Amino acid sequence: MNLVKNSGVHIGLAAVAGLAFGLIVGEWAANLQFVGDMFIRLIQMSIVPLVMASVIVATGSMSGAGTGKIAFRTFTWMIGFSLVAAVLAWVLSSVIRPGDGMVFGGELDSALEASAGDALGWQDTVVNFVSKNIFDAMSTATMVPIIVFSLLFGLALRQHITKSGDDRVLTFVDQVQQIVLTMIRLVMYVAPVGVFCLLASLAGDVGFSVVTTGLKYLGTTLLGVLILFAFFTVVVSVRTGLNPWKLPSKLAEQTAIAITTTSSAVTFPTVLKNTVEKVGVSQKIANFTLSVGLTMGSYGAVLNYMIVVMFFAQAGDVDLSVGQIVLGMGLAILLNMGTITVPGGFPVVAMFLATSLGLPFEAVGLLIAVDWFTGIFRTFLNVNGDTFVAMLVANADDEIDRDVYNGRKEVTADTLDVEELDDMLARADRAD
């Protein structure tokens, strides 16, 4: 690994330096806040075009492939596990309250105030999912109507392509997506400076509690990952009747790669190989479920995203309504399931969630600073969760070789052509 090119290392060093600087100089560090604000605005200005392009491309590119019983079972387990992850994140965040101690008394950004609005009944809330003027929704970054419009536009585009064979609009929107992604990559070059200034100002304002709050956030995420892993293991052992005590050794290799690389894409070939050769899932089931799971089975991401929503609310002393909590869970799951593909890494996801729910985001620098650690937690659960889903789907069709699982037989997995999966691997890494 080249440390010079590793932005994660630079951001980590900047975060430590920013915390130390803010704790030493105290309130004067607030003078650096404007630099951090500029960094956040650079990310914010890309969110609307990025989300619109991503949703349109995702829905406009859909085809009828992947239907049938295997697909139905795969998606059922994935959605079910994602729901469990979202609810668990809400419960843990409500009990541990990782955002407490970071409460800010300032006013919300005017754009976010417009997005948040007044508390409404559920009928009005649903009506407001559809905007009368999409340009008005774009100008105030009101994300849910933007997503609804983009989904409809993408579905209409898919029908147009099917009828006419003309995919020029889809190609154009895809190019817009790639250009905005390049913009975000350029912005991330200055991320260490932005994080330094954000955390320096934060530490100068709230003092040492910034450190304890970061640890509470990490602890909440880690606890959630461990609970979900245990839950998935119990479900698999009950449904399949296989000995759960043999699972750790079968998952050890892919776990080691996942936590050292924090990359589902890098780990994917090992997961596919081990799921067939050590767990005994048939090649047919493994190929489909693991490929889908690579981009749509990020349960660690769902857990983390919902904890981020709760963190922002607690840090801003905002009482979320039931509707906002449900919407937060829905957005976390949609981000995971690939309906909303938001490239650019955690900063973009965090700002997207804050903007969608109208939450203050002054503490986002702290979350960015510790995201390398949460990336380890997310990837650990993402890759192993995919294997669990493959086992459950295979069990329903009697496609698990129990002799292989129990070590009485050896099989060899088919060779994987990684180059054919470049786009899918790139999308998986964005979830980590």
Written overview of the protein:
With 432 residues, this protein is an all-alpha fold. It has one domain (32-431): Proton glutamate symport protein (Orthogonal Bundle), CATH 1.10.3860. 74% of the residues lie in helices and 0% in strands. It is built from 20 helices and no strands. Helix 1 runs parallel beside helix 9 (191-206), helix 3 runs antiparallel to helix 10 and helix 14 packs across helix 18 (371-396).
Instruction: State the separation between the terminal residues, measured CA to CA.
Output: 18 Å
Q: What is the strand content?
A: under 5%
> Major beta sheet, specifics?
none
Low-pLDDT runs of 5+ residues are 1-5, 105-122
CATH architecture: Orthogonal Bundle
Percent helix range = over 70%
CATH class: Mainly Alpha
State the total count of DSSP E strands: 0
- The overall number of domains is 1
Number of discrete helical segments: 20
Order of helices and strands: HHHHHHHHHHHHHHHHHHHH
Helix and strand arrangement:
Elements (H helix, E strand, L loop, with lengths): L6 H19 L7 H28 L8 H28 L13 H7 L5 H6 L6 H6 L3 H22 L3 H21 L2 H16 L2 H32 L6 H15 L2 H14 L5 H14 L2 H17 L6 H16 L8 H12 L6 H6 L1 H26 L5 H4 L16 H10 L1
Helix pairs in contact: 1-9, 2-7, 2-8, 2-9, 2-16, 3-10, 3-13, 3-14, 3-15, 3-18, 10-14, 10-18, 11-12, 11-18, 12-13, 12-18, 12-20, 13-18, 13-20, 14-15, 14-16, 14-18, 15-16
